[in-house]
Design a protein that fits this description.
Elements (H helix, E strand, L loop, with lengths): L5 E9 L14 H5 L5 H19 L10 E13 L8 E13 L4 E13 H15 L13 H11 L2 H6 L5 E5 L6 E8 L3 E6 L4 H7 L4 E6 L7 E5 L9 H18 L1 H4 L8 E2 L17 H20 L3 H6 L6
Parallel strand pairs: 4-5
Antiparallel strand pairs: 1-2, 2-3, 3-4, 5-9, 6-7, 6-10, 7-8, 8-9
């Protein structure tokens, strides 16, 4: 059955003219920005934030603070479960960063990953998990929670088509958990900044471990809170400074928009840090974003995944030796 499991990759620019495709999860960070009457202004302001953040971090040989520009591409991954399928089922979407050095006119590869969007993840967290806990006295997770999603992800990043398109494994950068306490260590990285460690792994950490990813937490210079970096291999050795800065500048900007209480707080995280969306000492960006709508749509899109992906393909997943566990 393994030969029947195939992936396809599509790449489109994420710029001020971007409009989400019908197969794109509307809860995705970049898709949410590209909606409504202020769509183009939202996107222009976002890219301005990203470029300013990049140049602030890549400050060497950059006296005017405008040497670099970041461009983004949306990587949409489809899965084909048999040769008879003429179209792919949407699986995940990632962002790929690229860097232009305006001084030398050199194009520099960035990192693929960054933002992470998955219909199956929506199903697991927004449909399966609430259904599992509906009548239980305390919170728990199913024994196989995240197993299928993790195997699908690992099968993709180890596939020939992934290796043909990308030279390095993804780095995914997310917000820290609001129910974990983070302690600052003495470890400092020149780009990633101060490292933090958490008191216990979060449900997201456990979920991403099923994808073969480890996590480390760093608060880059000028950031208000640590970011969670999910990776395989060695985060500090496998990627160049400019590659890491491309991820930081992109995802720190996104988080300032989506979680300003944490990432656009007026006071930075201290030595012991408990993130909170109830923080009132923060500043809004000028970029419009509807967080409540995003939560509601996550449930709708989780149900879509259940109807169009999980149920129709359950027999295939059970029989495929790469996915059956």
């Amino acid at each position: 059955m393994n030969k029947d499991l195939r992936f396809s990759i599509k790449s489109i620019p994420f710029d001020e003219h971007y409009q989400p495709a019908n197969s794109t999860r509307i809860t995705t960070n970049f898709a949410n920005l590209a909606r409504g009457q202020q769509r183009e202004e939202n996107l222009r302001n976002t890219f301005r934030m990203i470029n300013n953040r990049f140049n602030a971090l890549a400050h060497w040989d950059n006296p005017t603070g405008d040497r670099y520009a970041v461009t983004l591409d949306i990587i949409s991954v489809g899965i084909h479960t048999s040769d008879e399928h003429t179209s792919a089922l949407p699986l995940i979407e990632l962002l790929k960063t690229s860097i232009t050095d305006r001084s030398s006119q050199q194009q520099i590869a960035g990192i693929v990953g960054n933002n992470f969007s998955s219909y199956v993840r929506d199903y697991d967290f927004s449909v399966l998990l609430p259904e599992h806990n509906k009548h239980l006295p305390g919170f728990s997770v199913p024994d196989d929670f995240g197993e299928l999603h993790g195997r699908l992800y690992q099968h993709f990043v180890n596939s020939d088509i992934y290796k043909a398109h990308f030279g390095k494994q993804p780095v995914i950068c997310l917000s820290v958990s609001g129910n974990r306490t983070y302690q600052r260590t003495e470890n400092r990285h020149p780009v990633l900044g101060a490292e933090y460690v958490q008191d216990a792994y979060s449900l997201t950490d456990a979920y991403f471990s099923k994808m073969g990813l480890s996590v480390r937490y760093f608060m880059p210079p000028g950031s208000a809170a640590p970011l969670a970096f999910y990776f395989s291999g060695d985060l500090l050795s496998d990627y160049s400074s400019l590659e890491l800065i491309s991820t930081i500048s992109t995802m720190d900007s996104f988080q300032k928009i989506y979680r300003p209480e944490i990432y656009n707080a007026n006071s930075p995280a201290g030595k012991s840090y408990l993130p909170s969306l109830n923080n009132t000492d923060f500043s809004f960006t000028r970029i419009v974003y509807d967080r409540e709508e995003r939560s509601r749509l996550a449930v709708e899109q989780g149900n879509f995944a259940k109807e169009h992906f999980i149920r129709p393909c359950s027999a295939f997943f059970a029989q495929n030796s790469a996915l059956a566990g």
